[in-house]
């Protein structure tokens, strides 16, 4: 894209890029550095750990929660794990109020997870479905895709989901 911009400017006969003229090597190296930095930031996906803010994808009334503790593993939670979270944003007439401590199941995680067929699944965001202490969902609908890896422990969440990935 940057090379196309430089060639278009050089055809007009003047440079819009601050006096670069036909010298595109500096611009191309800068764009390559931006692309490599973007690639590295995408590779550094980690566990869901303390103070991670997650999106709530059910109709329980909460919008965002912050992870307090992962109930499995020392490093943090992954896809399908249960966490303890605090509600940070909530809808006014929802079942769950702001400040309440709740349990949640991670249904979407930005960290990749391998499947048995050799493929990997990862999502753009971190999302949870709120559950009670017995593991039953608080809401009655789950929005967005839910991976089929949850069928081992959380069948009820899969039945409420619109799309199973």
From TrEMBL:
| CC terms in the record's Gene Ontology section | mitochondrial large ribosomal subunit
**Single Gene Ontology MF annotation:** large ribosomal subunit rRNA binding
* UniProt GO BP: translation
**UniProt xrefs under InterPro entries:** Ribosomal_uL14, Ribosomal_uL14_bac-type, Ribosomal_uL14_CS, Ribosomal_uL14_sf
| The keyword rRNA-binding is assigned to this record | yes
Q: Which UniProt keywords apply?
A: Ribonucleoprotein, Ribosomal protein, RNA-binding, rRNA-binding
SMART domains from the entry? Ribosomal_L14 (SM01374)
Superkingdom, taxonomy of origin: Eukaryota
What family is this protein classified in?
Answer: Belongs to the universal ribosomal protein uL14 family.
Can you name this protein? Ribosomal protein L14
Query: Which organism is the protein's source?
Result: Rubroshorea leprosula
């Amino acid at each position: 894209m940057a090379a196309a911009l430089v060639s278009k400017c050089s055809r007009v006969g003047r440079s819009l890029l601050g006096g670069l003229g036909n010298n595109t090597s500096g611009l191309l190296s800068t764009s390559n550095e931006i692309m490599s930095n973007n690639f590295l930031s995408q590779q550094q996906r980690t566990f869901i750990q303390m103070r991670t803010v997650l999106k709530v994808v059910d109709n329980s009334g909460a919008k965002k929660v912050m992870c307090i503790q992962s109930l499995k593993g020392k490093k943090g939670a992954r896809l399908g794990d249960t966490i303890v979270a605090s509600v940070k944003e909530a809808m006014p007439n929802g079942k769950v109020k702001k400040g309440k401590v709740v349990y949640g199941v991670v249904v979407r995680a930005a960290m990749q997870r391998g499947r048995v067929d050799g493929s990997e699944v990862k999502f753009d965001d971190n999302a949870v479905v709120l559950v009670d202490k017995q593991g039953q969902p608080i809401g009655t609908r789950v929005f967005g895709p839910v991976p089929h890896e949850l069928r081992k422990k959380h069948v009820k969440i899969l039945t409420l989901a619109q799309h199973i990935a």
